[in-house]
Amino acid sequence: MLHSSDSMRALLITYVWPEPQSSAAGIRTLDLIAALQSMGGVVEVGSPSAFNAHSETLQRRQIPIHSLRPNSQDLPALIDQVKSRGRFDVVVFDRFVTEEMFGWVFASKSPDTTRIVDTQDLHFLRRYRQAACESGRDFREFIAEIPPSTDSSLLRELGAIIRSDLSFVLSDHEAHLLTRRFGVDSRKIMLSRIGTLGHPVGPSDRKGFSWIGNHRHPPNADSLFWLATELWPAIRAKLPHGEIDVYGAYPSRVTGQFHDPGRGLIIHGPAESAIESIARSRVLLAPIRFGAGIKGKIIDAWASGTPVCATSMASEGMMNQTPAEWGGLIGDDVEAFTTAAILLHEDPRIWQTCFQNALRLVEGAFSRENAFLSIQAGIRQANENKATWTRGVQDELNRFLGFRANEYFSKWIAEKEKSAHNRGVF
Fold first, then answer.
1. How far is residue 344's CA from residue 338's CA, in Å, rounded to a whole number?
2. Chain segment 177-208, per-residue pLDDT in tens
3. What is the pTM of this model?
4. Eight-state DSSP code of residue 7
5. Can you tell me the distance from the alpha carbon of 232 to that of 264, in angstroms, rounded to the nearest whole number?
6. Sign of CA dihedral 237, 243, 247, 253
7. Calpha distance 348→303 (Å, rounded)
8. Among 331, 281, 270, 289, which Cα is nearest to 307's?
């Protein structure tokens, strides 16, 4: 908890070091750092991942970094070290899994530190939808469903959210889901979207279509599979000279098999700049069949003024306006998606309307300024919750059981690893 006269000291714990050029999650992490710094905060970043080129990037920006191995004394030692100069006022966990790993340490060693979870997307919702899609179900059947109350991912993520002083969610759909369907107190939820700056490019320098996404992310891998095997052949049948440029980090062997310049499907590696790469095309295709949160690729497209042809799954949480005011068109089956994609590509009037809509959305709901303001408001709300929250017995019981379970599970793993090491297993 921060006193008004103090300079804030914040620790951001990330599951992996941020990769802003390969994922929206990486962009979000850098936004969190920048927003905390804009509040006068001194920000440090820790991760259980090994140091790599992405951690070195943080170091070059003069951001202290820490190796925080789970089930070790790394974090307790860091908290003790900082105590000589004060303490961490705020800790932000970049997803519920990192809260499970390290939240109990703060509850034990630094209970006055405000604890925040940045959900990025609701993992339980994405995993449920992935399983439904992989079982062969049409996403239109399960988009409104939620996991059963016995679902372990649901229980784990809700537990992390309830234990924490506040959680950021990127989608208004997910904010409503948490507060209205699962009864999370609205004071503990802050809507905080990914934001961007507009870099519009006019229609004259554009051609064809684009697709972008980290190939390791299952929703993206499925999206490209559906595109390459069904959607693109249907589009190409009506636009025989159509071309699509596919960008993304960590392409797989399967991804490479889709490369077919003869039918206009060209696989590239990672894009140096997602916005600039998308801006070369007339239309971004986002045929997402499962997922959660909001889609960074759509925000990047809008930042360049590029209309988007998407599914209703891809546009979830980004449709606060009427369809006529959205930055693109929606299609949920092969025929509807193909028709929408071709209309956006071929009709100058529709393209220009969606271009203007995209720019308005980037200047409004998805602006960088609004993203920063929501993060700053969330920090203040979390500190207020920490200072004033009156917890009932049920609330305290949930926190106690959750923290103690994670603590003793961590200690059990540590002892197991120590025993294996002593026996020469490692």
1. 10
2. 999 999 999 999 999 998 888 888 887 889 99
3. 0.89
4. P
5. 9
6. positive
7. 19
8. 281
